[in-house]
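>> received
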Amino acid sequence: MKLQQLQAFVAAAHHRSLRAAARELGVTQPAVTHTIRELENALNAELMVRSVRGIELTACGLALLPRAEQLLGDMQRTLEAVEQVKGELAGKVSVGTMPSIALTALPQAVLAFRRAMPRVNLHLEEVTVPDAVARLRNGTLDIAAIHHVQALDSDLVQVQLYSTQFVIVMRAGHPLANVKHLHELLDAEWILTVGADHFPHSVMKAMFDAHGLPLPKRLLRAPSSFSVTLGLVSQTDVISCFTGPLAAMMAPLGIQVAQIEEALPHYELSILSRRDLLPTPAVKQFVACLQEAVSKSRNVAV
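>> returned
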């Protein structure tokens, strides 16, 4: 397999169009077609077929795509690592994260990173754990700063970032603002930020199970949408769970913490990466900045 063959295949797979792939690569459509056919001949496998919706990947194509993306990403990181060691501090760092980090430690980490490496491009986005794992594997993310994964596959590694406690949050002046026990909140309407598939492993379920309580019957779901959750918690009688640092950050928006006497779950946040991928100097620098930001601003054990 040649680099140009993988590039043509990945571009065509992403766009589902040979013409669009040719535009991205700056070559003609027949050139893209010829290059992909060379790759198919080298692998002795059909990778894509034409359909009414454009290009469709075959089973072999679907198997190749994440590995081709990973190879191209690793090649780019290799070039960037050499350039960064030479002192040409350019390249890119791609980070997936979640609100508990994005709204607390991340801004200070970015400021520190910018002072150290002003020319390196940063790509930051909010991701779910399944998305993060898939994108670490295909090479489109360098690291993911998200909650700790209990059953992590051997191809990934995680380093603890910090541990915090969950708290129950509601708007200031909520009718239940003065309750002291978890069972007093069973009739309230709660909002969940996890989908139905992940709810059995959620903090909320663990919280009620730990105290032998049934789940609240009124559950409103907003999977992976913190903005929806924040809007409803701050302006309606819906309640939710936030990490302690996140709740403190949101207090100026009219969010208050319920003073529940029962012990609430702890939450571990970690930095995930691929075990076989050596980080570039820029990725190492960003991780160091994030760890320092957590250490300085969260008063938690790193």
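>> The longest strand covers residues 156-171.
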